[in-house]
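User: I've been trying to design a sequence by hand for this structure and keep getting stuck. Would you show me what you'd pick, starting by listing the structure so we're on the same page?

Assistant: Good idea, let's start from the same input. This is the structure you sent:
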């Protein structure tokens, strides 16, 4: 056998795999690969790792195993050698409101680390990552950016609407409606049985659809990948084309950090603002930017948000579901509108090998008469709904999600709760009244640990009919399905002695979105006195993954990164 060993060179499509399979020394590697299906011809092809997030633990990912096979077929047909492997996923919707939700954000780091581990160990030359639930999407994107090997992200697709135009948030809000006797047991059971009809990610502009849209806007997915139903021929075709696209990127020497520039992240922010996307996008874009070695901060969301309006009337605060946006053309026509208004950087490179402007050149506008995406002269909100707040309650920042429908300011007395469970129980028991500011603390990245999402308490508030008269503040975060007057990511968090950890029930809190301020009416002397008396709470976990996460995680204001 000829010795195939060569020194790796830049833009060599087999830069990494040749170190694993070429030459006499690597004969044992080839022998093992033959057992998993490699032929003689395969050893001279670039190897494409197909990272599947398939699992039967959630409808978001239950179909992704088959989609990953389609991506592998696309890579093989284009001249690569695909190798399938799996990473984990957990379900936010299922774990929501329980101790298990602490593992949700932690899973983002586990996913990124595990993809890096497999790709690095096996010497894959390129990557296709297929994700469907909230944390595996940013986890996949973080790994692609960190590895900087040609890669494409594929979104698993959105779920179809449930009976009566329902979705997962309908179920959470029905719990509150049942607690207030606005619906009966039969109605609650009906929504439980019919709201989730099959595979796909949660159906509004919640975190999954928000992040899919952001990743497409950054150029890391093929056009329209974010706007396809999970169960559709378009999604199968998207996967096949993604596999072929990675082989093309290898040939052209285009790597993720050529695509994930600062301007690409600015494009993502503009698109998620126009869509009315999830607060989680702030957290995840900061983390992906860190892996791409791009400087991005909370201030960038404020700067860009001042000039981009909210245009899409999508849930949770709007009327429509993602399937209805897909039916009129998805996000590509919206991106074309933003580009024409000078709100996107058209010169950004994408995984097609073309620029964003080139990809959008022939995109048709939305059909006349549609009401899902509004015109620039009649926006839902003239500037961003994602409002970065600062003040003595959040010196490092907090993130509010305010479309204007909830009002732009709120003053009320704090009702302080240590953790989500106590707050939810009090809300459902009718102990929270109009005018209250519910404060849920001890849920930050370190203190939770894991920064649980507060969909159960916000869903209960909405279901009880208090959505326009109660505010909620937390050092945790919110599901993309949360709406109302909600402020999360309060930093520094309570576990670090932040002001939120010093609050007492009855303190007067004022939030003003116009001034971008969040203040508690206490003197600095009183805050200093309370800080001196403050003692940290015993850690939730002293061993295992939660303890390791708590020891390494950064502030939410920096993306809750661990690397």
């Amino acid at each position: 056998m000829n010795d195939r060993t060569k020194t790796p060179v830049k833009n060599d499509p087999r830069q990494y795999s040749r170190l694993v399979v070429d030459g006499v020394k690597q004969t044992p590697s080839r022998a093992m690969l033959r057992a998993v299906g490699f032929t003689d011809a395969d050893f001279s092809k670039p190897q494409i790792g197909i990272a599947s997030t398939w699992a039967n633990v959630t409808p978001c990912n239950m179909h992704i195993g088959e989609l990953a096979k389609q991506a592998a077929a696309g890579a093989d047909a284009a001249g690569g050698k695909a190798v399938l492997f799996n990473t984990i996923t957990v379900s936010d919707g299922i774990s929501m409101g329980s101790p298990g939700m602490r593992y949700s954000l932690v899973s983002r780091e586990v996913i990124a680390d595990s993809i890096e581990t497999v790709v690095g160990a096996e010497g894959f030359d390129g990557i296709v990552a297929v994700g469907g639930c909230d944390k595996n999407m940013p986890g996949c994107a973080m790994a692609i950016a960190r590895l900087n090997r040609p890669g494409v992200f594929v979104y698993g697709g959105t779920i179809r609407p449930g009976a009566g135009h329902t979705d997962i948030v309908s179920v959470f809000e029905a719990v509150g409606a049942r607690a207030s006797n606005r619906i009966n047991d039969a109605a609650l059971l009906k929504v439980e049985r019919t709201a989730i009809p099959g595979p796909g990610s949660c159906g509004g502009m919640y975190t999954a659809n928000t992040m899919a849209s952001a990743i497409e806007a950054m150029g890391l997915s093929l056009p329209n990948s974010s706007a396809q139903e999970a169960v559709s021929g378009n999604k199968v075709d998207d996967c096949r084309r993604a596999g072929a696209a990675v082989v093309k990127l290898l040939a052209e020497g285009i790597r993720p950090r050529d695509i994930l520039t600062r301007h690409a992240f600015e494009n993502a922010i503009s698109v998620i603002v126009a869509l009315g996307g999830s607060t989680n996008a702030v957290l995840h874009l900061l983390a992906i930017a860190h892996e791409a070695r791009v400087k991005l901060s909370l201030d960038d969301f404020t700067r860009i948000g001042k000039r981009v309006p909210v245009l899409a009337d999508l849930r949770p605060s709007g009327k429509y579901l993602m399937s209805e946006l897909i039916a009129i053309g998805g996000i590509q026509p919206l991106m074309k509108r933003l580009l024409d208004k000078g709100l996107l950087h058209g010169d950004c490179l994408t995984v097609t090998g073309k620029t964003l402007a080139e990809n959008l050149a022939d995109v048709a506008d939305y059909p006349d008469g549609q009401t899902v995406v509004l015109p620039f002269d009649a926006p839902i909100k003239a500037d961003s709904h994602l409002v970065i707040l600062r003040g003595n309650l959040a010196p490092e920042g907090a993130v509010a999600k305010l479309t204007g429908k909830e009002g732009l300011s709120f003053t009320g007395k704090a009702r302080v709760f240590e953790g989500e469970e106590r707050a939810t129980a009090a809300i459902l028991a009718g102990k929270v009244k109009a005018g209250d500011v519910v404060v849920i603390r001890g849920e930050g990245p370190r203190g939770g640990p894991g920064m649980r999402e507060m969909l159960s308490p916000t869903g209960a508030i909405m279901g009880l009919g208090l959505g326009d008269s109660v505010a909620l503040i937390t050092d945790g975060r919110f599901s993309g399905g949360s709406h109302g007057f909600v402020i999360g990511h309060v930093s520094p968090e309570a576990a670090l002695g932040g002001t939120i950890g010093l609050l007492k029930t009855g303190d007067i809190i004022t939030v003003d979105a116009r001034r971008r301020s969040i203040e508690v009416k206490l003197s600095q002397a009183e805050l200093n006195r309370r800080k001196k008396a403050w003692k940290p709470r015993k850690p939730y976990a002293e061993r295992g993954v939660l303890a390791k996460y708590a020891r390494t995680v950064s502030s939410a204001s920096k993306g809750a990164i661990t690397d």
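That's my pick for every position. To get oriented when you compare it with your attempt: The first helix runs from residue 18 to 21. The chain has two domains: 45-159+172-360, 386-558.
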